[in-house]
Amino acid sequence: MKTIAEVQNAIIAVINFIQKYELIGDVHMVEYFTKDHWNVLLSGNCRAELLNKNVDDLYQLTNIDKPYNGDIHSASEDEKKFVVNDLQQYISAAHDSHLTSQNMLTPIKDILATLNKKQEATQTVQINSKEYMSGKKSHEVEKMSSVVDILAQHCNTHQVLDIGSGKGYLSTHLSLKYGMKVTAIDCNDDNTTGASQRAEKFLSYWRKHLNGRHTKESGAAAAVINNDSLKLESVTAYVAASTDPSKFLPQSCEHNIEDACIVTGLHTCGDLCSTVISMFVTNKLIKGLCVVGCCYHLISESNNETGTFPMSDFLATKSFSLGRNKRMLALKAPERHAVMNPKQQREKSERSLFYRAVLSVILKEKYGLKSDSKDACIGKIFSKSHSFLDYIRRSLNKLRLDSSLLSDEEIDNYLQSYEPRFKELVAFSMIRHQYGPAVESIIVLDKYLYLLEQVKNTGIEKCFIGEVFDPILSPRCFALIASKSIT
Question: The whole model's pTM is what?
């Protein structure tokens, strides 16, 4: 558990990086060619150093586990006017702004050891969850549920509120494998109805799969197998910080310690993560918290009356804001870019950006449309297109523009004219990806600091940030884990 001063210092360091390179974070890649980001934002030496690398090496710029080790040069006065004038300095600063570099994380094994002093684990049924979930979802559910199990034991409860439960995978796993009483809460009725039906199918599958194979099971594991029904209830509801958790708990008696619960959320979208944290802070019945945020672009900021960022008093006094472009950039996954096949990434990501940036040139020159115009939104055309020509034709049709103003030959000429600049677009895109983790850091640290600020008034006794998932498999991997005194 870090001190308030330590977290404040980390936040200040990240703010300095975010503000120094703010124009990189605010860039919209559809305007890459129309606003000439390559020449306007990067110094000549920086551009030359990037172009001296092959495309595969450019993808390795995003490997944040290893600080960049390139050539160092003294920036001239002319170079200092650029946002990024020294590649080494920029990438090192980006690396230092990542949560994994700031000594803010507590290893999950240490968190579990702190919460589970008896070093005991719930006896569970051993089932390969990949048999009914995707590999990514199985990884997330297995890791998250093991933390929730230890947290629940620490808080002396078997009751869990799973908020933003979606399809109910985590809720079902907690109930089936750990024998917990789970209330799965989601605002989408289709999700909750589907989750209930899916959970019953899972229970039937488990019984059939386990028949005769675990006859010696006892305790919670045997109870799960022998129960006629799941200890799981799916509820369609909107929750707010002021929501009373007791109405979701079976036979609850207000403030009865036996009816305490913990609250969890696996990839809670946008403001919902802050709502779950606020519920934990303000409700006496909620004794534990394990939540992983997601969809940062959906977070509302304090310039909105209902904004949830920033949460901490410290960051609120800084009058600090991010904006949607930066929050969108925080969804990028540098770790995955560094290890995935460059050609695959180029075709599915940067090639899409390239097509869209050239389209902006066409829209500006042929139709007088600005690239940031609401009338220039084309959606997911790239995935449906077979070629650049097909992409442009589909886009013009989507925008209801006169396609006859452009011949096939003219469209091909645009492609041939800008194709030599594809490599520089990839390089610039990788530079932007370096910026994203700093934005995620400030969002997570703000929530963590908010929890620390509430310690004295709420009985919070333990509070951590843990990297609960493998970032290659699940990029949104940072969990906020906290518990209150149960006395």
Answer: 0.89
